[in-house]
Amino acid sequence: MFVKNWMLPQHHSISGDALASEAAALILEHNLKMLPVVDNGRLRGVVHRKDLSEAATCVSGTGDLCEINYFCNKLKVKDVMIRMPVTVSIDDSVEDTLIKGREMMMSTFPVMDGGKVVGVVSDREIVVTLFKLLEASKARTRITLTGITLEKGTLSDMLNIVDESDSIARAIFTVPEGKNGKVRVVVRVESENPGVLRKALENKGYNILEFTSQERKK
């Protein structure tokens, strides 16, 4: 999976000479986590919703009219932005982006296409991606098999059992389980006879950790 296919397209940016209060209003209006700072077509930095929110709260909390006036009418984006931000490319994989985020303790990255910022990818987009992969909004039979040793034909065997049980496989993926090389296999299926499918898996010797059945709506 490449970042370009899962990112949030970047429709909003701001100049470094704009007021910080303008950036805060833009972020609030469009429910953004981060706003790229672009001058003359080049990414100069980023401003985060959290940082602007904390600054505004701090100023308003003091009640000092001079400080409030300075934040609203004088403080510029370039004074609070993060310069030379860490970025990812449209051709980076989502997996590599997740690793980079974990290593750098970051949850949001500007996405670059050459020298142009074209989007943002964050934990929000990752959650949306996971939501789609799991088909969380759909009524599915959800199965988790545990203690699986992946060998040639293992997943094919599982999918054959699904087919033979008059069910339709909608998604299948694996999750590492401990350090013994075994995995959990998570399967999402449409099934009119979930009981038959469960029995078939048990008869094949699979250890079922979770089995949540929801009948397919006709």
Number of structural units classed as domains: 2
Average pLDDT reading: 85
The helicity comes to 25-40%
Q: Would you tell me the structural class of the helices and strands?
A: alpha+beta
Shape: elongated
CATH topology group of the largest domain = CBS-domain
Number of helices: 8
Instruction: Kindly report the spatial arrangement of strands forming the biggest sheet.
Output: 1-7-6-5
Which residues sit in consecutive blocks of at least 5 with pLDDT less than 50?
none
CATH class identity of the largest domain: Alpha Beta
Structural overview:
The protein has 218 residues and is α+β, with helices and mostly antiparallel strands. The protein folds into 2 domains: 3-130, CBS-domain (Roll), CATH 3.10.580; 138-212, ACT domain (Alpha-Beta Plaits), CATH 3.30.70.260. It has 8 helices and 11 strands. It has helices spanning 20-30, 49-62, 65-73, 77-80, 94-104, 123-133, 154-164, 194-203; strands at 8-9, 34-39, 42-48, 82-83, 88-89, 108-113, 116-122, 141-148, 167-176, 183-191, 207-212. The strands form 3 sheets. Strands 1-7-6-5 form a 4-stranded mixed β-sheet. Strands 9-10-8-11 form a 4-stranded antiparallel β-sheet, with helices on one face. β2 and β3 (42-48) form a beta hairpin. α1 crosses α2. The protein is elongated and about 70 Å long. The two termini are 32 Å apart. The mean pLDDT is 85.
